Amino acid sequence: MSVLVVDVGTTGLRAAVVRDDATISGFTYEALPPSSPFAGLVEFDGAAMRDAVLRVARGALSVAGPVRAVGITAQRASTIVWDTRTGLPVAPGLSWQDLRTVGDCMRLRSEHGLVFAPNQTATKLTWLTANVEAARSPHARAGTVDTWVAAVLSNFAVHATDSSNAAVTGLADHASLGKHEWSTSVLETLNIDAHLLPRIVPTMSVIGDATALPGSPPIMAMVGDQQASLVGQGGIVAGAAKATFGTGGMLDIYAGTTTPTHLARTKSGTFPIVVYSRGTTLHWGAEAIMLTAGSNVEWLVNDMGLIPDAQSSDAMAASVASSDGVMYVPALIGMGTPHWDYGARGTLLGLTRGTTKAHVVRAVLEGVAHRGADLLEASEMDTGLRVERLRVDGGMSRNAVFAQALANATGRPIDISRDTEATTLGAGFLAGVTAGVWDNLAQTAALVQPLRTVEPTAAPLRAQWHEAVRRARGWIPELSALDF
């Protein structure tokens, strides 16, 4: 018994089949990077995404064979509007990275007391309906990427999103989410017609049939990518946490079924999230965000020319025993949790005449690790939970120097995921339990074993790190003044 997973990320998409022993087969991938027509604008081609989704899904099935169910996981909050008569997008989709609505976010806070971030769906959809006439048509429908994928796979019979994705749009609150509804007050303030929006369904539910695929398997799970990664690493008990270090970084911790008082950013800079839902029960957690992680290594490769490729960073950093006092704050586009300082900038400190490129490369990896420790500390502060060990996936998880630096900075054992993209496993587990492939999520969690565990070997230099952060913050005061 198997489950097909379609996983659409920010720069590419994949499909794979998850077997009942948690192995993956039929892995098929296509790159699909967004475009940036102007600074701050990030768009994606919905029609190209549609075609790629069908290619990778059919490709995976052709290799791995028929499946019992389909799970969908995707980048969150990216927004697209299409015409139901043609099934075609009416405009480019707006990526979660798109910043064109920064001014709208500031105005809404000043005039209405509503706090939105420009990476959320709320102001993106408002912008589309205000600027694209076809988006105001009675035939228009809107959604996030998971909604678009479900529509494509079902030949547009399904118009749905799940509570894990809905919770990060800005269009719902904790009270409406409990009823799987949108917030009527928010829709009225933003002048968004409810007919545009998908129905909110439980993460684990029978959502519709993927009639565009051979055998028309039922879609039995939809879930946000970071939440899928947490489930895919067995994070289903209070205090279980995972961190994904890709282009950026996300740390998610499972908290339980107690409903938070609000969905806004909390005291230590984390956000409440719905990890998944089944029936009327919502499972909550918290998320901490690092704006740049692997992109700091890309900077070393593409802009600084210190190493030929990202993989070389491990060997280069390992060629020296330490950074020799060099410290790097990875704030190339500002800092997220816990500071949320958009005016902070990347900072190198402690340089001497004896500093080599190996010291700089090592300092960059250690700086990202320190930011990972920041995310962990903030998550524990906001949830009151203790994380005994941190599970890690994403491209940087394969870097041995980074993994050791993370263990040292957090003072916790680091479990390296066998799969760099645990999102596929998580969406597969959620759909598979719904379909009866497994009895429950506890059974799937027992299947997850780390590739290896990295234990702390040195005391963290956290006091020096906090001083480095202090110096990096507020570099562009007008940006540091922004608060979302």
Q: Would you write up a description of this structure?
A:
- The protein has 484 residues and is α+β, with helices and mostly antiparallel strands.
- It folds into two domains: 225 residues, ATPase, nucleotide binding domain (Nucleotidyltransferase, domain 5, 2-Layer Sandwich), CATH 3.30.420.40; 217 residues, Nucleotidyltransferase, domain 5, CATH 3.30.420.
- Helices cover 34% and strands 23% of the residues.
- It is built from 16 helices and 22 strands.
- The strands form six sheets. A seven-stranded mixed beta sheet has the order 16-17-15-14-20-21-22, sandwiched between helices. A six-stranded mixed beta sheet has the order 3-2-1-5-13-12, with helices on both faces. A three-stranded antiparallel beta sheet has the order 7-6-9.
- The longest helix is centred in the last third of the chain and has 27 residues.
- It is globular.
- The protein starts with a strand and ends with a helix.
SSE topology:
Elements: E1 2-8, E2 12-19, E3 24-31, E4 43-44, H1 46-64, E5 69-74, E6 79-83, E7 88-89, E8 93-94, H2 102-112, H3 121-131, E9 140-144, H4 145-153, E10 160-162, H5 163-166, H6 174-178, H7 184-190, E11 199-201, E12 204-209, E13 218-224, H8 225-232, E14 241-245, E15 249-256, E16 271-278, E17 281-290, H9 294-303, H10 312-318, E18 327-329, E19 347-349, H11 357-383, E20 390-393, H12 400-410, E21 414-416, H13 422-435, H14 441-445, E22 452-454, H15 462-472, H16 477-480
Parallel strand pairs: 1-5, 5-13, 10-11, 14-20, 20-21
Antiparallel strand pairs: 1-2, 2-3, 4-8, 6-7, 6-9, 12-13, 14-15, 15-17, 16-17, 18-19, 21-22
